[in-house]
Amino acid sequence: MLILSWIAWCCTLVGIVQQFIGTLLVERFVIQKTPTLSSPPPVSILKPLCGVEPLTEVALESFFLIEYPEFQIVFGVQNPADPVLEVVKRLRERYPARNVQLVIDSASHGTNRKISNLINMLPAASHDILVMSDADIHVPTYFLHSVVAELLQPSVGLVTTLYTGLPGTPNLASTMGANQINYTFLPGALLARKLGREDCLGVTMALTRSVLAKIGGLQAIVNCLADDQVLGRLVRAKGYELMLAPVIPATTVPEADFGALFRHELRWARTIRALVPIPYAASVLQISLFWAALGVLASGGGIWAWLALALVVLVRFMLAQRIDRALGLAKAGEAWLFLLRDALCIIIYVASFLGNKVDWRGQTMIADAGRIQPNR
Predict the structure, then answer these.
(1) Has this prediction a pTM greater than 0.85?
(2) Which fold, 33-257?
(3) Which of 14, 20, 295, 349 has its Cα between 20 and 30 A from that of 113?
């Protein structure tokens, strides 16, 4: 038990150090200046849509408010009865001056419905620079300036962005989902990049038609669950760099209950585990409160151990507050939420090793190292 206690407290320290460094990286990242472009090239934004979730209209409207000389927005829907079409109609009426194209095409090209939708949309895109972005993303007005400025750098073939979590409902599940993104994913992603990883994040994938053609087009990723990660690998394999734009959009966390949140985060976990098994296995060190709780049990529940656990909660809360201030977010919530959040994290971590099925918008699929197959 003494050995277990030392292991637990050492792992706790590792987790806290990781979170502290990640917080510093977030603070440094957000103070980067927004780049300026003397002659901004035209851009086509591709927005594949499927259904309506909390804040869908608000998220889509943010793209109509982008300040950029020339860009078009291409919306794509596969179901002609999709309720999101009413949202698009309202936005087009509200902003008649915007160049908007709508593609309704049910054609399927592979097992990834989102990429099939993008393939259907691509002929409607007028410009050479393509920015593919998820439907639930909220962007600032300078979004395109930041993304395109990075894409125009020599040797850069693909630009992506980090993102924060925005609760889509007042329920606790949405808040906890957003907290996981803001206080674990975001600093963790910056730390991973500092250590040499270049991940593409599907919230934003910007590249030129020529680079897309060199990797085999969107057809090359139409059977991939982690289409963003595979796209990044294909682009890097052609000798290009993958860059992070100095802008952080927000993504809606729509889950109103813990069941939906668990299924969503389990899909993330099993997909990441399949793609990068060793880094994923080591990610358990990020769950510092789990290790601190284990340390309390292994040390016999002494007063000093409970005080150490309280200190870890306090440090986690203070680091979250620093991230909130850096990003201009609402407060992290009560400190006890971190106990609940880490408990859910360890449940999802364990569950991720108990199978490889994932649920994606009602479609059950099998996650492996970048590919998907319909579950039979």
Answers:
(1) yes
(2) Spore Coat Polysaccharide Biosynthesis Protein SpsA; Chain A (3.90.550)
(3) 349
80 and 104 Cβ atoms separated by less than 8 Å: yes
Return the closest-CA partner of residue 273 out of 374, 366, 148: 366
Query: In the beta sheet, which residues pair with residue 146?
Result: none
Q: How far apart are CA 207 and CA 295, in angstroms?
A: 47
The string of pLDDT tens digits covering residues 72-109 is 999 999 999 999 999 999 999 999 999 999 999 999 99
Give dist(CA 157, CA 57) in Å, integer. Answer: 31
Whole-angstrom Cα distance, residue 317 to residue 315? 5
Residue 306 tokens, joined: 């409970």
Domain range list for the chain? 2-27+260-360, 33-257
